[in-house]
Design goal:
Layout: H1 3-27, H2 29-32, H3 36-55, H4 63-81, H5 86-102, H6 110-133, H7 139-151, H8 158-166, H9 169-177, H10 183-186, H11 195-210, H12 217-236, H13 241-272, H14 289-302, H15 309-324, H16 326-352, H17 366-388
Helix pairs in contact: 1-3, 1-4, 3-4, 3-9, 3-13, 3-17, 4-5, 5-6, 6-7, 6-8, 8-9, 8-12, 9-13, 11-12, 11-16, 12-13, 12-16, 13-14, 13-15, 13-17, 14-16, 14-17, 15-16
Length: 390
């Protein structure tokens, strides 16, 4: 057995153990002594790290890189389980430093990526660190700003589009998978800020409209992430716990599904040697059947069709809003329709549209299919998560 094979197996084994631990926390948060919301976002982040480890190209795999990915996963899990403690703050700082270290200084766009990382992740880390030094209740504003910035709520969204579109696999997927940990920062202060409702509504509508005009596949994913982040802000501004639970379910399912779609796009681009755009289509016909099937599953998970965890979250959210803000509920449903149009246009044209002269030289590998299956299974577990937490 070669050294590279042993290294890959070791890396996948460690991430699998952490993923199972994250799912255990989510399934039995009371037994683990962890807040249920924190436990759920921890499980999502752990499974996303496992998928990233499986998708990493062999050429980029090294002992140092594998160890750094494990260490940053432990840091991210600590920052989601205990977001406002010194342990969580230290984890957030390690995550920020890791991102800077992972950027290739020889890349032509490294300066732009560093600015985006500093503005998004760096400012978020600075705010939560400062909040730990400020006495309550004055830390509420800092935590609120940190959460909105990390979620990519407009006008703090430009960094998110840059990182998702241009950053390497490890950075872009983890950025998509982990922003919903900001829910843990936002939830305790949401009831103190009525303006959150309008901030969230603006983000939801602007992100939904952006899905219809973006030509880059990855920027469509970024726009959907912004729209769903706004939906969660609206949910967390509501006094009813059922509505906040619906927002949490929407956020977790979106994190998993968007991570899966982004991994698929990275896999296709690695095989083509060029970015995937709107002019490319038909990859699901031949050469990419597995990629096409999983992309359709993740699209269904995002648009909240019956049976998906997002459907439960959307139902809880809309039902609560109809009783207090019916007009807001109608606008949220309209935004959900726009997101559905954008995501299905991306998937149906990209994978099941007319064939182009480009053809994938190889479909998803076994380890890549296993990672996508892990994301799908976790999406299924989210369907029963509301009953497990009681």
């Amino acid at each position: 057995m070669s050294e590279l094979v042993r290294l890959r197996r070791w890396s996948l084994g460690v991430h699998a153990v952490l993923a199972f631990a994250g799912i255990y926390f989510a399934a039995a948060p009371n037994a683990a002594g962890v807040d249920p919301l924190h436990a759920m976002v921890t499980a999502v982040a752990a499974v996303a790290f496992l998928a990233v480890a499986a998708f990493r190209a062999t050429a980029s795999l090294s002992h140092g890189g594998a160890v750094r990915l494990v260490l940053v996963e432990l840091s991210v899990l600590a920052s989601t389980l205990w977001p406002s403690t010194m342990t969580g703050i230290a984890g957030a700082n390690v995550y920020f430093a890791w991102g800077i270290a992972e950027l290739d200084p020889r890349a032509p766009n490294v300066a732009r990526l560093r600015r985006a990382w500093f503005f998004g992740i760096g400012a978020h880390t600075l705010l939560i660190t400062a909040a730990a030094l400020v006495p309550s209740p004055h830390d509420t504003t800092l935590l609120l700003g940190a959460a909105l910035l990390r979620l990519g709520v407009p006008p703090f969204h430009s960094w998110l589009f840059v990182l998702i579109d241009e950053a390497p696999l490890e950075l872009s997927v983890i950025v998509v998978a982990t922003p919903f940990s900001a829910l843990a920062l936002l939830s305790p202060s949401a009831r103190l800020h009525d303006s959150l409702l309008w901030i969230g509504l603006f983000a939801t509508m602007s992100g939904a409209l952006a899905t219809l005009v973006r030509s880059s596949s990855k920027r469509v994913i970024a726009a959907i992430s912004v729209s769903l982040a706004g939906t969660m802000v609206v949910a967390l501004s509501h006094p009813a716990s059922s509505v906040r639970l619906g927002g949490a379910l929407l956020g977790a399912s979106a994190a998993l599904a968007l991570s899966g779609l982004l991994l698929i796009l990275h896999g296709i681009e690695a095989r083509l040697g060029r970015p995937m755009d709107a002019s490319m289509s038909g990859f699901g016909h031949d050469g990419g059947q597995w990629f096409g099937r999983f992309a359709l599953v993740f699209a269904i998970a995002i648009v909240a069709l019956p049976g998906a965890p997002a459907f439960i979250g959307e139902d809880l959210l809309v039902d609560g809003l109809l009783s207090t803000n019916p007009m807001i509920a109608v606008l949220m449903m309209f935004a959900a329709v726009l997101v559905a149009i954008g995501i299905f246009r991306l998937v149906l044209l990209g994978f099941f549209g007319p064939k182009t002269h480009l053809r994938l030289p190889a479909d998803a590998l076994l380890r890549e299919r296993t990672a996508l299956i892990a994301l799908t299974v976790t999406l299924g577990l989210l369907t029963v998560w509301p009953t497990m937490r009681n």
